[in-house]
Write a structure and sequence with these properties.
This is Ionotropic glutamate receptor C-terminal domain-containing protein. The protein is of the alpha/beta class. The protein has 21 helices and 16 strands.
């Protein structure tokens, strides 16, 4: 019994010492972990601690950090968390994070992760696991971290996929690995649509390269991150690719970045497009309005309002002249007022008989008649000469209703049909072309059509028209498909360097590179033989006036002569007593 009691006392003492060592180790580990979390916050501030794992409830640690902590014990969230990029992820064991929410995965892809390794799990296998998920900001600590202070940090572009760091060394645990991609491949394709992308052949190397305000953005980014572009030509099945095809390939994760404009119409989400690069309007380039025909000038100068006013003044003057001469209202009649000889001659700026014996009032009326004739004839002669010198043009098209009444047809490509249908515009008078055929027709400046074009594309057409003898098209911002068109770049949804690319895109625009590329786009197209400075405008019209242009002048002349002839015939055929009265 004595030996049994001694043995039990020894076992109890050993157990107490073991528990004390375990508690001390746990406290040391917690202190070391707290110090590491504080250091990570100093390296790059984080405002939230997202914790995955069942055994990660460490209240004392969270209280000391004074940072909001979210504990996900199941390893996955059930709804879309609106986490920011300043969130630090803590996993209490390897694969404790089993996030299945798609939106949360995208938001947390580039966030920093700290993994607590248990057992004999090797760091290289952990880095390989997260690399396949395209999550690269990974650091790990083992259970003996409190003893040695060793942290393992994943590295992508090197032979060994992790680096062993000691906290005493003071090296950064997390680095921006994609700032230097060491020649890694960026998969891409281009739709070769100008002026966004301008293909040309390099004289020195003989390789095909690209300019334009989209292609140059990608080229500079590739150079900045020390990567290489690889055109995925094997994905091209038949014909040329459109921006719609490239956007679809991006959404299937077959490409990294597209050198084109992203399709934004009828998209359920915008995960596969970048932050807006440029904004412009999407309106129509319409032919310059036709000049008025010479024959229509005579009708154009005769405004109905002015004619009515002159007719009223004529009648008033005629009534006053008849009354002043006869001193009675009895001589007034419909025919005597309208066929007053003095007023007719006076308003046509012709001489008329002036009564010898006339009072001051009658003279004043004659002066008013002369003044009215001077004003009316001078006004119409000035209008006629001005219109003949520079013919006025027809009104500009400012709406779909104006286009429906015009002689023009509307040319669109197959992708813009959906836009017209969404605007409830009838397709009558609309001709739909394939994308390449539409581009060729628009480049030909066919004045039988009006074409939709963005303000960025219109710049090159405007520059080309400077070499024309006459301007053929104009860009109207009143007649548009979309007043606020956004140009974004198609980009893979889980691209790990999306933030670096979007930062680069905004900086290029901020420093004026984008504007310079847009301004030089037409010159680049000329150098690449994609457009010309040839004058495509029609030859100037002959401005001589021919007989058929005087149609209305002869018509009014013969109508007047006919009316005078009819009156003369009625005088000859009518009884003399009737005409005397």
């Amino acid at each position: 019994m004595a030996w049994l009691i001694i043995i039990l006392l020894c076992l109890g003492n050993s157990r107490a010492q073991l528990l004390d060592v375990t508690n001390t180790s746990y406290l040391d580990f917690e202190d070391r972990l707290f110090g590491l979390l504080v250091r990570l916050q100093l390296e790059k501030f984080y405002d939230t601690l997202l914790v995955y794992g069942k055994d990660c409830a460490i209240p004392s640690l969270f209280e000391r950090l004074q940072v909001p902590a979210v504990l996900v014990s199941s390893g996955s969230t059930n709804f879309d968390w609106n986490f920011s990029s300043l969130t630090l992820i803590l996993s209490c064991s390897f694969q404790a994070e089993r996030e299945e929410n798609y939106r949360t995965l995208m938001k947390l892809q580039i966030n920093r992760r700290l993994i607590l390794l248990k057992g004999d799990i090797r760091p290289e296998s952990v880095c390989d696991f997260y690399s396949r998920k395209e999550q690269h900001n990974i650091a790990m600590v083992k259970e003996n971290f409190y003893q040695f202070g060793v942290v393992y940090s994943c590295r992508l572009f090197q032979h060994q996929n992790y680096e062993k760091l000691n906290l005493i060394d003071g090296k950064s645990i997390y680095i921006d690995q994609f700032r230097n991609m060491h020649g890694s491949v960026i998969r891409t394709l281009t739709d070769k649509k100008t002026p966004r992308t301008i293909p040309y052949r390099d004289d020195e190397t003989g390789e095909q390269k690209y300019k334009g305000y989209v292609a140059m953005l990608i080229n500079h980014f590739v150079e900045k991150v020390n990567a290489t572009i690889e055109m995925q030509e094997d994905l091209i099945q038949e014909g040329n690719l459109s921006f719609v095809d490239i956007t679809d390939l991006i959404s299937k994760d077959l490409l990294d970045i597209g050198i084109c404009e992203a399709r934004t119409l009828k998209m359920s989400n915008y995960d596969s497009i970048s932050y807006p690069y440029l904004m412009s309007s999407y309106c129509f380039m319409v032919p310059m309005p036709d000049e008025m025909a010479f024959g229509d000038v005579y009708l154009a100068i005769m405004a109905p309002t002015v004619l009515i006013m002159l007719f009223v003044i004529f009648c008033i003057c005629s009534v006053l002249i008849i009354y002043m001469k006869e001193r009675s209202w009895r001589s007034l009649s419909f025919s005597s007022v309208l066929m007053n000889d003095i007023c007719l001659r006076g308003f046509l700026a012709q001489p008329f008989p002036f009564p010898r014996q006339s009072n001051r009032k009658l003279k004043l009326i004659f002066m008013l008649v002369c003044f009215s004739s001077l004003i009316s004839t001078t006004m119409y002669v000035a209008y006629l000469q001005s219109f003949m010198w520079g013919l006025p043009i027809e009104p500009y098209l400012t709406s779909f209703d104006d286009w429906k009444k015009s002689r023009y047809k509307m040319a669109i490509n197959i992708y813009e049909r959906e836009i017209l249908e969404s605007l409830n515009v009838s397709l009558e008078g609309v001709e739909i072309f394939q994308h390449d055929d539409f581009a060729r027709l628009r480049k030909s400046f066919n004045t039988e059509y009006l074409f939709p074009v963005t303000a960025l594309q219109w710049f090159t057409f405007s520059e080309q028209q400077k070499f024309f003898s006459t301007k053929m098209f104009t860009y109207t911002e009143d007649f548009c498909l979309n007043h606020f068109d956004i140009l974004s770049i198609p980009i893979r949804r889980h691209l790990p360097y999306r933030d670096i690319f979007e930062e680069h895109m905004l900086r290029q625009k901020e420093f004026g590179f984008t504007k310079n590329w847009i301004d030089e786009s037409f010159n680049d197209m000329v150098k690449a033989n994609l457009t010309s400075v040839e004058d495509l405008s029609p030859p100037p019209k002959d401005d001589t006036i021919e007989v058929h242009n005087l149609y209305w002048a002869f018509t009014m002349y013969f109508v007047g002569m006919g009316m005078g002839l009819c009156c003369f015939i009625f005088e000859l055929l009518g009884p003399k007593r009737y005409w005397r009265n």
